[in-house]
Amino acid sequence: MRGVDVHGSESTGEPGATGESGVDHAFLALERELAVFLRRARANSGEMAREVHPELEAAAYGLLVRLESAGQQRATDLAAYFGVGKATMSRQLRALENLGLVAREPDPADGRASLVHLTAEGLARYRSVRDARRDRYVRKLADWDRAEVAELARLLHHLNARAED
Predict the structure, then answer these.
(1) What CA–CA distances, in Å, run from 152 to 24, 62, 147, 157?
(2) Backbone phi, psi, residue 114, to 5°
(3) pLDDT 10s digits, 84-118
(4) How far apart are the first and last CA of the chain?
(5) Backbone angles phi, psi at 110, to 5 degrees
(6) N or C: which end of the chain has fewer CB within 10 A?
């Protein structure tokens, strides 16, 4: 079965089908769409960070996401999760502390370490921005069938799980 993909390239529609150049068009289309998606996601992170606080860096927004979903954590665990060095994590956490969005408390399991958590202000600001973002998704996908939305979520989860392997 021949067709044209979303970019106007001819495709046979068969899994693993390659064109004259030996390129698998399904994976080429996936790569293109993920590049667009990631570019937009980076831009959106910056916007959401500024909505939480005008001085918040885009990279620090991910820390709020992680702390809200996983709860309090050691800075070393956060650094490992994000794949950054301790110095980078310390700088980002210090900035979040200075903005009143996170706080530290002694780790009861190890008095030498501390646990980072969202403050009440940080949690409220984060949730407000998250909820507004979710409302934008609902509006943008209003004409999608709920099963399609669920399938997209399932497939993205599957992709993310594979990326962690």
Answers:
(1) 22, 22, 9, 8
(2) -130, 160
(3) 999 999 999 999 999 999 999 999 998 888 999 99
(4) 34
(5) -155, 100
(6) C
